Protein backbone atom coordinates (compact mmCIF):
# COMPACT_ATOMS: atom_id res chain seq x y z
CA UNK A 1 0.00 0.00 0.00
CA UNK A 2 1.38 3.39 -0.99
CA UNK A 3 1.14 6.39 1.34
CA UNK A 4 -0.11 9.90 0.65
CA UNK A 5 0.37 12.89 2.95
CA UNK A 6 -2.14 15.75 2.57
CA UNK A 7 -0.29 18.86 3.74
CA UNK A 8 -2.70 21.75 4.01
CA UNK A 9 -4.66 24.24 6.08
CA UNK A 10 -8.24 24.50 7.33
CA UNK A 11 -9.62 23.40 3.97
CA UNK A 12 -7.74 20.11 4.36
CA UNK A 13 -8.79 19.96 8.02
CA UNK A 14 -12.42 20.12 6.93
CA UNK A 15 -13.40 23.46 8.46
CA UNK A 16 -16.90 24.55 7.49
CA UNK A 17 -17.67 28.08 6.25
CA UNK A 18 -17.71 30.38 9.27
CA UNK A 19 -20.71 32.64 9.93
CA UNK A 20 -18.74 34.28 12.77
CA UNK A 21 -15.29 34.10 14.32
CA UNK A 22 -16.47 31.90 17.22
CA UNK A 23 -17.65 29.16 14.87
CA UNK A 24 -15.58 25.95 14.94
CA UNK A 25 -17.65 23.57 12.80
CA UNK A 26 -15.90 20.75 10.97
CA UNK A 27 -17.31 18.37 8.37
CA UNK A 28 -17.73 14.78 9.51
CA UNK A 29 -14.78 12.54 8.73
CA UNK A 30 -16.48 10.70 5.87
CA UNK A 31 -17.83 13.93 4.40
CA UNK A 32 -14.48 15.75 4.20
CA UNK A 33 -12.74 15.65 0.85
CA UNK A 34 -9.80 13.89 2.54
CA UNK A 35 -12.06 11.10 3.78
CA UNK A 36 -13.74 10.79 0.40
CA UNK A 37 -10.34 10.68 -1.31
CA UNK A 38 -9.28 7.76 0.90
CA UNK A 39 -12.30 5.80 -0.33
CA UNK A 40 -11.48 6.60 -3.95
CA UNK A 41 -7.89 5.43 -3.48
CA UNK A 42 -8.24 2.08 -1.68
CA UNK A 43 -4.64 1.13 -2.48
CA UNK A 44 -3.28 4.22 -0.72
CA UNK A 45 -2.95 5.14 2.94
CA UNK A 46 -4.24 8.72 3.01
CA UNK A 47 -2.85 10.82 5.88
CA UNK A 48 -4.65 14.13 6.39
CA UNK A 49 -2.45 16.84 7.94
CA UNK A 50 -4.60 19.94 7.70
CA UNK A 51 -3.98 22.68 10.25
CA UNK A 52 -6.29 25.72 10.34
CA UNK A 53 -4.30 28.90 9.82
CA UNK A 54 -1.24 27.14 8.40
CA UNK A 55 0.93 29.36 6.21
CA UNK A 56 3.65 28.42 3.77
CA UNK A 57 6.72 29.91 5.49
CA UNK A 58 5.46 32.58 7.90
CA UNK A 59 5.33 32.69 11.68
CA UNK A 60 1.90 34.11 12.47
CA UNK A 61 2.24 36.95 15.02
CA UNK A 62 -1.45 36.71 15.93
CA UNK A 63 -2.34 33.01 15.74
CA UNK A 64 1.01 31.50 16.66
CA UNK A 65 4.39 30.57 15.17
CA UNK A 66 3.37 26.89 15.16
CA UNK A 67 1.25 27.60 12.08
CA UNK A 68 4.37 28.00 9.93
CA UNK A 69 4.29 25.19 7.37
CA UNK A 70 8.02 25.33 6.70
CA UNK A 71 8.76 24.77 10.38
CA UNK A 72 6.57 21.69 10.84
CA UNK A 73 7.02 20.04 7.45
CA UNK A 74 10.34 18.24 8.17
CA UNK A 75 8.91 16.63 11.32
CA UNK A 76 5.79 15.47 9.49
CA UNK A 77 7.84 13.97 6.69
CA UNK A 78 9.94 12.08 9.20
CA UNK A 79 7.04 10.89 11.33
CA UNK A 80 5.04 9.53 8.39
CA UNK A 81 7.82 8.13 6.21
CA UNK A 82 8.12 6.31 3.96
CA UNK A 83 5.83 8.52 1.90
CA UNK A 84 5.17 7.92 -1.77
CA UNK A 85 3.45 11.23 -2.39
CA UNK A 86 2.84 14.59 -0.70
CA UNK A 87 -0.11 16.72 -1.83
CA UNK A 88 0.55 20.34 -0.88
CA UNK A 89 -2.36 22.78 -0.85
CA UNK A 90 -1.38 25.98 0.97
CA UNK A 91 -1.23 29.70 0.26
CA UNK A 92 -4.67 30.92 1.28
CA UNK A 93 -3.57 32.05 4.74
CA UNK A 94 -0.59 33.89 3.27
CA UNK A 95 -3.19 36.25 1.78
CA UNK A 96 -3.98 37.67 5.22
CA UNK A 97 -3.18 41.38 5.30
CA UNK A 98 -0.74 40.90 8.19
CA UNK A 99 1.77 39.05 5.97
CA UNK A 100 1.98 41.64 3.18
CA UNK A 101 2.90 39.15 0.45
CA UNK A 102 1.70 38.83 -3.13
CA UNK A 103 0.92 35.86 -5.37
CA UNK A 104 4.49 35.71 -6.66
CA UNK A 105 5.83 35.49 -3.09
CA UNK A 106 3.35 32.70 -2.33
CA UNK A 107 4.45 30.74 -5.38
CA UNK A 108 8.09 31.10 -4.34
CA UNK A 109 7.25 30.04 -0.79
CA UNK A 110 5.54 26.90 -2.06
CA UNK A 111 8.52 26.17 -4.26
CA UNK A 112 10.67 26.28 -1.13
CA UNK A 113 8.39 23.72 0.55
CA UNK A 114 8.71 21.48 -2.49
CA UNK A 115 12.50 21.66 -2.22
CA UNK A 116 12.27 20.55 1.40
CA UNK A 117 10.22 17.52 0.35
CA UNK A 118 12.56 16.66 -2.50
CA UNK A 119 15.67 16.54 -0.28
CA UNK A 120 13.93 14.92 2.69
CA UNK A 121 14.78 11.30 1.88
CA UNK A 122 11.29 10.57 3.25
CA UNK A 123 10.25 8.37 0.36
CA UNK A 124 10.64 4.61 -0.03
CA UNK A 125 14.26 3.43 0.30
CA UNK A 126 15.36 6.96 1.17
CA UNK A 127 14.22 8.45 -2.12
CA UNK A 128 12.21 11.65 -2.40
CA UNK A 129 8.41 11.46 -2.24
CA UNK A 130 6.47 12.58 -5.28
CA UNK A 131 4.73 15.95 -5.04
CA UNK A 132 1.35 17.19 -6.26
CA UNK A 133 1.26 20.97 -5.83
CA UNK A 134 -2.24 22.45 -5.69
CA UNK A 135 -3.28 26.07 -6.17
CA UNK A 136 -6.22 26.92 -3.90
CA UNK A 137 -9.15 28.77 -5.48
CA UNK A 138 -9.35 32.57 -5.36
CA UNK A 139 -10.87 34.02 -2.20
CA UNK A 140 -13.60 36.58 -1.57
CA UNK A 141 -13.58 39.39 0.98
CA UNK A 142 -16.93 38.72 2.64
CA UNK A 143 -18.33 37.87 6.04
CA UNK A 144 -16.45 37.60 9.30
CA UNK A 145 -13.04 37.04 7.65
CA UNK A 146 -13.19 40.01 5.27
CA UNK A 147 -11.11 42.31 7.47
CA UNK A 148 -8.46 39.68 8.14
CA UNK A 149 -8.01 39.07 4.40
CA UNK A 150 -8.33 42.71 3.30
CA UNK A 151 -6.69 43.10 -0.11
CA UNK A 152 -6.35 39.34 -0.52
CA UNK A 153 -9.07 38.78 -3.08
CA UNK A 154 -7.24 40.69 -5.81
CA UNK A 155 -3.94 38.99 -4.98
CA UNK A 156 -5.57 35.56 -5.06
CA UNK A 157 -6.49 35.96 -8.72
CA UNK A 158 -2.84 35.37 -9.56
CA UNK A 159 -2.31 32.31 -7.37
CA UNK A 160 -2.91 29.63 -9.98
CA UNK A 161 -0.51 31.28 -12.43
CA UNK A 162 2.28 31.71 -9.90
CA UNK A 163 1.88 28.31 -8.23
CA UNK A 164 1.70 26.62 -11.62
CA UNK A 165 4.97 28.33 -12.55
CA UNK A 166 6.51 27.17 -9.28
CA UNK A 167 5.45 23.60 -10.03
CA UNK A 168 7.04 23.78 -13.48
CA UNK A 169 10.30 25.13 -12.09
CA UNK A 170 10.38 22.40 -9.43
CA UNK A 171 9.40 19.67 -11.89
CA UNK A 172 6.36 18.46 -9.95
CA UNK A 173 2.73 17.75 -10.80
CA UNK A 174 0.23 20.62 -10.55
CA UNK A 175 -3.52 21.00 -10.14
CA UNK A 176 -5.55 24.22 -10.07
CA UNK A 177 -8.34 23.68 -7.51
CA UNK A 178 -9.94 26.89 -8.70
CA UNK A 179 -11.00 24.99 -11.82
CA UNK A 180 -12.84 22.51 -9.60
CA UNK A 181 -14.37 24.41 -6.66
CA UNK A 182 -15.14 27.90 -5.40
CA UNK A 183 -14.99 29.35 -1.91
CA UNK A 184 -18.21 29.76 0.05
CA UNK A 185 -19.97 33.15 -0.07
CA UNK A 186 -20.46 32.79 3.70
CA UNK A 187 -16.85 33.63 4.60
CA UNK A 188 -14.98 33.72 1.28
CA UNK A 189 -12.25 31.32 2.45
CA UNK A 190 -13.66 27.89 3.23
CA UNK A 191 -15.47 25.47 0.95
CA UNK A 192 -19.10 24.40 1.18
CA UNK A 193 -20.23 20.78 1.37
CA UNK A 194 -20.58 20.55 -2.41
CA UNK A 195 -16.83 21.02 -2.80
CA UNK A 196 -15.90 17.86 -0.93
CA UNK A 197 -16.86 15.24 -3.55
CA UNK A 198 -15.61 17.46 -6.39
CA UNK A 199 -12.17 17.90 -4.85
CA UNK A 200 -11.87 14.24 -3.91
CA UNK A 201 -12.65 13.16 -7.45
CA UNK A 202 -10.28 15.71 -9.01
CA UNK A 203 -7.43 14.73 -6.71
CA UNK A 204 -8.02 11.02 -7.25
CA UNK A 205 -7.93 11.53 -11.03
CA UNK A 206 -4.74 13.61 -10.84
CA UNK A 207 -3.00 11.10 -8.57
CA UNK A 208 -3.99 8.19 -10.78
CA UNK A 209 -2.75 10.04 -13.87
CA UNK A 210 0.53 11.39 -12.50
CA UNK A 211 1.44 8.56 -10.12
CA UNK A 212 0.25 5.28 -11.68
CA UNK A 213 1.10 1.91 -10.17
Structure description:
The chain has 213 residues and is an alpha/beta fold. The chain has seven helices and five strands. Strand 3 (85-89), helix 4 and strand 4 form a beta-alpha-beta unit. Helix 2 packs across helix 7 and helix 3 runs parallel beside helix 4 (103-118).
Helix content: 25-40%
Strand arrangement, largest sheet?
A: 2-1-3-4-5
Largest sheet: 5 strands, parallel
Quaternary state of the chains: single chain
Structural class: alpha/beta
Which percent range describes the beta-strand content? 5-15%
Please give a handful of descriptors for the protein shown.
213 residues; alpha/beta; 5 strands; 34% helix
Please provide a brief summary of the model.
The chain has 213 residues and is an alpha/beta fold. The chain has helices at residues 10-13, 33-40, 69-80, 103-118, 152-156, 159-170, 195-210; strands at 2-8, 44-50, 85-89, 130-135, 173-176. The protein has a 5-stranded parallel β-sheet, with helices on both faces.
Topology:
Elements: E1 2-8, H1 10-13, H2 33-40, E2 44-50, H3 69-80, E3 85-89, H4 103-118, E4 130-135, H5 152-156, H6 159-170, E5 173-176, H7 195-210
Parallel strand pairs: 1-2, 1-3, 3-4, 4-5
Helix pairs in contact: 2-7, 3-4, 4-6
Amino acid sequence: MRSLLLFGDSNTHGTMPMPDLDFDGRFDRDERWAGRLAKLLPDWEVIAEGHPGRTTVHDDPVEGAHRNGLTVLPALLESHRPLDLVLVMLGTNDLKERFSVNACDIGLSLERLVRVIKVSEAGPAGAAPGVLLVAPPPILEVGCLAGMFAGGAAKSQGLAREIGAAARRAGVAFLDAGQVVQVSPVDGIHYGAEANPALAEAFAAAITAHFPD
